[in-house]
Design brief:
11% helix; Immunoglobulin-like; mainly beta; elongated; 229 residues; 19 strands; four-stranded mixed β-sheet
Length: 229
């Protein structure tokens, strides 16, 4: 009689445990419909480390992520766990679609369209391309800070002639505030007769982290100074 009671107890325990065992084998159910929670992405910066985890709620775990349309910025990759990481090598806007699939039978899928904007932390470009006016070279460079940090910025402009002689055309050292767009820096200097390349080096330092950003500009052709000694 006692053995019979123990047998019934063990059978009851096995019966109650069976659904939990089946659930553990198939994946954990959350009881909620599958829904993608990541609907926008923070900006990435060229050659800077990027790490983001996509999030979804509901469905039967584990979840699997994949890219279904579009393309990620060069240098970034998405793994099956939904982690987007790497360092982008090119600026621009990159639209793409991700799909998350749960472990149900049948599986449930959801897609989400996203756009990742990749910015160059420091931008420096000609706002007035160099030209010769008599003996004088005249130009202007515009600089932008696309980050959330202030820059300690240094700009050096040198005109280098055909024998390698360098003449200073401009020097600036100042704080470029975060979010600054298209600050223009004029450049001008008298030059002796000769043919010149105008080189501009812009260096920005984030003092809190020691991170350095650099941009180098140079003219596409020789600047010819016909007047003067």
């Amino acid at each position: 009689m006692r053995a019979y009671g123990i047998g019934r107890t063990l059978l009851l325990i096995a019966f109650l445990a069976a659904p939990a065992l089946c659930l553990a084998q198939q994946g954990a159910a959350t009881g909620e419909p599958l829904n993608v929670k990541t609907t926008s992405l923070p900006n990435a910066y060229v050659r800077e480390s990027y790490h983001l985890e996509f999030h979804a709620e509901g469905g039967i775990l584990p979840l699997k992520w994949e890219l279904t349309e579009g393309s990620l910025p060069p240098g970034l990759a998405l793994d099956a766990e939904g982690v987007l990481s790497g360092a982008a090598t090119r600026a621009g806007q990159f639209p793409f679609t991700v799909k998350v699939t749960d472990s149900g039978k049948p599986a449930v899928e959801r897609e989400q369209q996203l756009t990742l904007q990749v910015l160059a932390p420091l931008v420096a470009e000609w706002s007035r391309y160099p030209k010769i006016n008599g003996q004088r070279v005249e130009a202007a460079v515009k600089v932008s800070n696309h980050t959330e940090d202030d820059f300690d910025l240094t700009l050096i402009a040198l005109a280098v002639n055909e024998i390698g002689r360098a003449i200073a055309v401009g020097y600036q050292h100042f704080q470029l505030k975060k979010g600054t767009d298209d600050m223009e820096i004029p450049l001008a200097e008298n030059l002796p007769r000769g043919a010149y390349d105008l080189n501009v080096d812009v260096v920005a330092e984030v003092q809190a982290t020691g991170r350095i950003h650099r941009v180098h500009l140079v003219t596409n052709e020789k600047l010819q100074v016909q007047q003067g000694p």
